[in-house]
Amino acid sequence: VNDYSYSIGGVAGARNPANAECFVGQPGTLYENGFSEGGQNETCATYNMLKLTSDLFLFDQRAELMDYYERSLYNHILASVAENTPANTYHVSLRPGAMKQFGNPDMSGFTCCNGTAIESSTKLQNSIYFRSKDNKALYVNLFIPSTLDWKERKVKIEQATNFPKEDHTKLTINGSGKFDVNVRVPGWATKGFIVKINGKEQNFTATPGSYLTINRNWKNGDVIELKMPFQFHLNPVMDQQNVASLFYGPILLAAQEPEARKEWRKVTLDAMDISKTIKGNPQELKFTIDDVVFKPFYDSYGRHSVYLDVELK
Question: Which of 9, 113, 247, 258 has the fewest CB atoms inside 10 Å of its own CB, making it the most exposed?
Fold first, then answer.
């Protein structure tokens, strides 16, 4: 899917063929074929990709699938709802200085994206956890405050976090028994992945883009703490490497624009450590580069640029 998807996780939109509701004509040609005037990233296409991703995970428990799920959930599905009404996006343009177009504020529309937008609001808890068929293992896929009622094992697990405005989460086990807890180590977590059990740091080797298995005879009240330091990283367009999106951990940061633009916004970043060029407050997920404000795409309602023309020096 990475050969076809935009940085927000969307996959629909092409000018060759001239159809904004399909994969681009050839893999790895997003710049050549994927930035059509008519729009890109049909929101319900991403909705359906998340359904497909969850179904694929039932057969193949790869962290790569849930990395994609997380990216699309935060950076497209959450970004598709208007600020003060239930209105939602249809196509989402990612051209320079674009602005989201929201429709159906009174929820009386009948497009495909209107229908899936209603469903998306009821499915934010989807895919946080999966269990193995034999109930001997649990998969923790997403870091979202939630309570899991694992009836087959008479265990409840409470997850408490303010992710993504903080880089850690806590899982409390209510119940007991021997089972594996497989926690996703995100592909973007390249600065480390720290695990504590009942306050004691564990000596685990965690590989980004994989699952870390914690095998234990769990006792009632056991606490698992996970910390995954965020860092800035770029997601370049595969066939135009200087055009890229800026991420902080799993969150895409959009440049806030005062007006429409014809060209990609140019930014210069430190080649050895791009964070040296970026200032801001991680707790608010608000940053600046040369006085240009960057904040999450899901929190951007005015004009913005998701893709940048990046020079590394």
Answer: 258
Residue 13 neighbours by CB distance under 10 Å: 28
Of 270, 268, 291, the C-alpha closest to 279 is 291
Q: How far is CA 46 from the centre of its chain?
A: 12
Burial of 197 (0-12, 13-18, 19+ CB in 10 A): middle
pLDDT mean over 17-39: 68
Question: b/e map of 302-312 (b: 16 or more CB within 10 Å)?
Answer: ebbbbbbbbee
Provide the strand spans (E) within 25-100: 88-89
The DSSP H or E segment spanning 32 is helix 30-33
Q: Give the dihedral sign, CA 49/72/145/230.
A: positive
Predicted pLDDT of residue 122: 84
The amino acid at 203: N
63 three-class SS: helix
- Measured CA to CA in angstroms, residue 26 lies from 14, 22, 29, 207, 236 at distances of 10, 11, 6, 31, 17
Q: Which domains does the chain have, with CATH numbers?
A: 30-121+231-312 (no CATH), 129-161+168-227 (2.60.40.1180)
* Residue count (the chain): 313
What span, in angstroms and rounded, lies between the C-alpha atoms of 78 and 95? 19
The confidence band for 36, taking pLDDT boundaries of 50, 70 and 90, is low
